[in-house]
Amino acid sequence: MDANSDSCHFNQQLAGIFTAASFSTISVIAVDVQKFCHSLAVLYSNLAKPILDCIVYNTMLYRRVGVETLFAISAIIQLSTGMLRALTPPFGALVAQEQKLELHVFYGMIEDFVIKYFWGAAGLLVCAAPVFATRIPIVSEINKGSGSGSFALTPNSGIKMAGDVVGSRARDFVTNRRILLSASDAVGRIIYMYKEIVLLSGYTLRVSDLLQVLEDIDDSKFVKARIGEKSQENPKYGASNTDTDIGKSYLKENSEPKVDLLSERGKIINSDYILFNKVPIYSPTGDVLLKELSFAVFPGMNTLVLGPNGCGKSSMFRILGGLWPVYGGILHRPSVDKIFYLPQRPYMCSGTLRDQVIYPHSKFEMLEEKNITDDDLLKILDIVQLKSIVSREGGWDSVKEWRDCLSGGDMQRIAMARLFYHKPKFAIMDECTSAVSMEIERIMYAHSSDLGITMLTVSHRQSLWKYHNHILEFDGQGGYIFTKLEPEKRIEYLMEKHKLEEQTKLYEDLEERLG
């Protein structure tokens, strides 16, 4: 890829707008660009020699068998190529859709039958036709010779002449056969490259789409799908209910008309709190998950985020973390160093055991800027009950492939230790304790509260409700609710809900039996 595409890529990445397009950008960069480069690189080497072979061997055939036979062979080639083109599936379109739907078997069957068997047999028939179809004029030549007195006829002269003629034609047949097979192989490779060229056209289409998207992003152009009506107004799920006076007053004073997503961007303001004011949420494919999201989280408002898969939880966190742009409304958020993200599968960097805990800091930053020693790190590991890992893995300076050496639970504990080391104001916890026991989970959340870290937690464990005082719940149909969380009442409501569902199911079963 040229310098312009590289520049576009890094500019948009630094700007934090590596966002969703009409296709998976990561898949195109990681897979399709590699396939495009490979196909383009092998195209010359796979085409140059077969073309040269075709020219050389066809010239030799023309000199030996004449233009009529060469024309017949060319007709067979055109016929087989036409059959392949008619019967070959549209590989270019399929590659552009990322899948070829396993039609290589069908193409290979047609290719082998037409080229290997049909064309090979026809070529052999063309070479053998002069031997078996032409009458050997031995007697006529003898009679001409005897009438003119050019030579004397002996009893063995006819047999000798017949042997010379047959031997000469057999020699020519073998030579022509070898030339024909070599030419057939060259033409076969050229015909096979037709499929590679079609695949290359598909890869070229996807790479060109990628470059176009990068250029559009660099020019601040972004076209999304039209906002669809996914759900009706729901009295439970609708506009947010912000329970803090500050949040209410701010939303009243700063409410703005709907932003045109095709021409404008939302506003981002650095603050000491988190506030979404009419911010739309999109999926990676461009579908609108939420028309407008409005809620506020201030220090101390530990918020539980619930909702089905694909409702917009992760998309909201990506916008909050600066990975995705804001395409409408106003977003207040702290600086990057004050927000920490803990995913379900933590990132283990290349380096020492110490680097895993202090990531992304270096040892120098730990000692000089944070004024933290290895003993302090050991105390942090002791909190998450992972103190023994230092001696078990060979000390702080041991270097390993940590993702392979550590279990899922150990990696989640190291991620929590990383959180306690940095001590941010806000922490986004996305199923970050799914692989640890409930006792370790209790210790982690209790210590986070003691450090004054405001938590935004994505989890369906009821055991975590007591560590949160607010809830943001998505219904998966474009609606949401943001309100205070009272764990005891919520558990009571859930139990009542399950009881009513069981009674309803029992009533339906009885009605079905009677009816």
TrEMBL record:
It is a multi-pass membrane protein. It is found in: Peroxisome membrane. It comes from the Eukaryota. GO terms for molecular function: ABC-type transporter activity; ATP binding; ATP hydrolysis activity; long-chain fatty acid transmembrane transporter activity. GO terms for biological process: fatty acid beta-oxidation; long-chain fatty acid import into peroxisome; peroxisome organization; very long-chain fatty acid catabolic process. One of its GO terms (cellular component) is peroxisomal membrane. The keyword ATP-binding applies. Keywords: ATP-binding, Membrane, Nucleotide-binding, Transmembrane, Transmembrane helix, Transport. The keyword Signal does not apply. CDD domains: ABCD_peroxisomal_ALDP. Residues 274-503 form the ABC transporter domain. PANTHER family: ATP-BINDING CASSETTE, SUB-FAMILY D MEMBER (PTHR11384), PEROXISOMAL LONG-CHAIN FATTY ACID IMPORT PROTEIN 1 (PTHR11384:SF69). Belongs to the ABC transporter superfamily. ABCD family. Peroxisomal fatty acyl CoA transporter (TC 3.A.1.203) subfamily. This is ATP-binding cassette sub-family D member 1. It comes from Smittium culicis. The lineage of its organism: Eukaryota, Fungi, Fungi incertae sedis, Zoopagomycota, Kickxellomycotina.
